[in-house]
Amino acid sequence: MKAKSFYKNNKHNNMNPKEKENNQEEELKTQATPNECDEETVGQEASQENEAPLTEEEKLVQELEKANEQIEEQKDKYLRLSAEFDNYRKRTMKEKAELILNGGEKSISSILPIVDDFERALKNMETATDVAAVKEGVELIYNKFMSVLGQNGVKVVETKEQPLDTDYHEAIAVIPAPNEELKGKILDCVQTGYILNDKVIRHAKVVVGE
């Protein structure tokens, strides 16, 4: 062993300075390697310690944190939906108010031409001498007006010789029927009734035979 050590020292002494420096660096690296291995071993052991099973308390804390996150998400969704619904409610209320105020605009616009016809007829009556022509003109305006009402969903309640139906008729008088077939049926209409889109807006006032 002494001979080997002597040989090694003698060899080291016979090296030039650059070889000595390289040899020293290799020895330092060799000495450092075990330390690095030790550091990696310590890191692995620490990691294994960190991955140790959670206690019941730690599990409960994690579950509580997840539950709180879910609650916050649901709360945010609720606030968004509430705001959207409030905006929808305000918008529909505004649209409903506008519909109530201007819902009859279409019907009124369709009637205006008939008003123009009446104005022209009244002006012509001032100088007209032919009563039959005036009557015919008024009948034309009336028929046009009824046509416009029909286009807007208005219908006349049928009364002539119809059985009395309290859903559509209002009997204001009862008179003896001229024959057996007209008993319980309408003999005369005092005031015309109207239906708007299958809804009675005014009952027909009628006279019924008995």
SSE layout and pairing:
Blueprint: H1 2-14, H2 17-50, H3 56-102, H4 105-125, H5 131-151, E1 154-156, E2 169-175, E3 186-191, E4 194-196, E5 199-202, E6 204-209
Parallel strand pairs: 2-6
Antiparallel strand pairs: 1-4, 3-6, 4-5
Pfam families: GrpE
Family: Belongs to the GrpE family.
Main location: cytoplasm
Counting structural domains, the number is 3
Q: Helix fraction?
A: 55-70%
* Percentage beta strand: 5-15%
Order of strands across the biggest sheet?
Answer: 1-4-5
Mind summarizing the main beta sheet?
A: 3 strands, antiparallel
Q: Which CATH architecture of the largest domain? A: Roll
What order do the helices and strands follow? HHHHHEEEEEE
CATH class of the largest domain: Mainly Beta
By DSSP, the count of extended strands is 6
CA-based shape? elongated
Mean pLDDT: 81
Separation of the first and last Cα atoms: 150 Å
Unreliable sequence segments = 1-13, 32-37
CATH superfamily of the largest domain: Head domain of nucleotide exchange factor GrpE
Structural notes for this entry:
Helices cover 65% and strands 14% of the residues. Helix 4 (105-125) packs antiparallel against helix 5. It has three domains: 59-102; 104-152; 155-209, Roll (Nucleotide Exchange Factor Grpe, Chain A, domain 2), CATH 2.30.22.10. The protein is built from five helices and six strands; from the N terminus they run αααααββββββ. The protein has helices spanning 2-14, 17-50, 56-102, 105-125, 131-151; strands at residues 154-156, 169-175, 186-191, 194-196, 199-202, 204-209. A hairpin with a 2-residue loop joins strand 4 (194-196) and strand 5. The chain starts with a helix and ends with a strand. With 210 residues, it is an alpha+beta fold. Homodimer. It holds the Pfam family GrpE. This is Protein GrpE. Keywords: Chaperone, Cytoplasm, Stress response.
